[in-house]
Specification:
Non-ribosomal Peptide Synthetase Peptidyl Carrier Protein, Chain A; disordered C terminus; mainly alpha; single chain; 95 residues
C-alpha cells in the first residue's frame, strides 16, 4: 500500500469521525487545525484507524504524532512489518 492510499483511507476515517465529507486532510494536518479534535475525538480516530488497517498503535506512538504525516509513516511501517510476518499483502512503496 502506498503512502497516498494510506492518506486517502486516513482522510476517510477522519471525515467519518467528524461526519464531514468536506474535510481536507494532508500530511501537515495537525490537531490544532481541527477545532473539534479533542482528546475524545483523538481516541475515536485512533481506534477507527487501527480497525481500518488491522494494526495497533502503542500509546506512546499515538500520543506523539506531530501531524497526520507522522501517523501515516507509523501506519506504513506497521503494515510493512505485518507483511514481513506473512499476515498481509502490501506493496512496500516508500513516500
Amino acid at each position: 500500500m502506498q503512502h497516498s492510499e494510506i492518506l486517502q483511507k486516513v482522510q476517510s476515517v477522519i471525515r467519518a469521525q467528524f461526519d464531514d465529507e468536506t474535510l481536507q486532510i494532508t500530511n501537515a494536518t495537525v490537531v490544532d487545525d481541527m477545532p473539534d479534535w479533542d482528546s475524545v475525538a483523538h481516541v475515536r480516530i485512533v481506534v477507527a484507524i487501527e480497525s481500518c488497517f488491522g494494526i495497533q498503535f502503542e500509546p506512546e506512538e499515538y500520543m506523539a504524532f506531530a501531524d497526520v504525516g507522522e501517523m501515516i509513516d507509523c501506519i506504513f511501517l506497521k503494515l510493512v512489518r505485518k507483511n514481513a510476518d506473512g499476515s498481509s499483502q502490501i506493496n512496500a512503496a516508500v513516500r
